[in-house]
Amino acid sequence: MPRFRLDIEYDGGAYAGWQRQADQPSVQQAIEQAIARFCGDVVSLRGAGRTDAGVHATGQVAHADLTKGWTGDKVRDAVNAHLQMQGERVSILKATPVPDTFDARFSALGRHYLYRILNRRAPAALEAGKVWWVPKRLDAQAMHEAAQVLVGRHDFTTFRSTQCQAASPVRTLARLDVVRAGDLIEISASARSFLHNQVRSMVGSLKRVGDGAWTTADLKEALEARNRAACGQVAPPDGLFLTGVDYPEESIRE
Fold it and tell me: CB of 115 within 8 A of CB of 239?
């Protein structure tokens, strides 16, 4: 069966997360239903990341096995047409035929997330639901400097959900950068894989550094505590975006 890689963007505010659920709308289900309406195939998508309710994506990746060797353009346009007809807030950016050895989840070498904080006194109007509004002035430089203590290989127990199902809390964080552009603070995180709620947990703790409640030493102490109770607040899902997934070149070459 021909396998297709799907590059996807979506507004997570409309869904209970990526993963299919019995009684709530999900991104996975929306795409699976659109594929079924397009060609009659009943598929089970595998996504690169199981984003939570309210989390957005500009670079999610999934794969699906179809029964016919359509062109990528045909798959993209047809699935998008059915998504639009159903009023879904999901778009297939690209559909690409790939080898059957390609796996959107297990072939991934790296995942990239962006978290956006709107840091001004006035609340968001145009970007409501796409940022975390923090009215108190934050020190983005202090946040960036503190963030570097989290970069590298660590036990991230403090920064993972108590419901996290990962076998190990140890992860290697390749990048955690904080930059300010006017009223917007952007936090970029990259790793091969992340724990459940890891990015939002780190952002919430970095916000405490930014507002002066914590120092870099406090953040380091929280990391070394390996205790969920030591974490700062978990940032809301609104500002989080899955922006890209890396794969070895040979896995995506048909």
Answer: yes
Q: How far apart are CA 27 and CA 10, in angstroms?
A: 8
**CATH numbers and ranges of domains, the chain:** 3-107 (3.30.70.580), 110-243 (3.30.70.660)
Among residues 156, 155, 205, the alpha carbon closest in space to that of 178 is found at 205
Q: What is the pTM of this model?
A: 0.96
Pull the structure tokens for residue 240: 């989080």
Q: What is the enclosing helix (H) or strand (E) of 56?
A: strand 56-65
Band the pLDDT of 63: cuts 50, 70, 90.
very high
Give the contacts of 72 (CB within 8 A, at least 6 positions apart): 4, 94, 95, 96, 97
Concerning whether 52 is annotated as a catalytic residue, the answer is yes
Single out the catalytic residue among 7, 11, 41, 52.
52
Q: How far is CA 34 from CA 42, 71, 235, 243, in A?
A: 10, 17, 32, 23
Q: Express each pLDDT in 153-165 by its tens digit.
A: 999 999 999 999 9
Query: What is the distance between the alpha carbons of residues 32 and 47, in angstroms, rounded to a whole number?
Result: 12
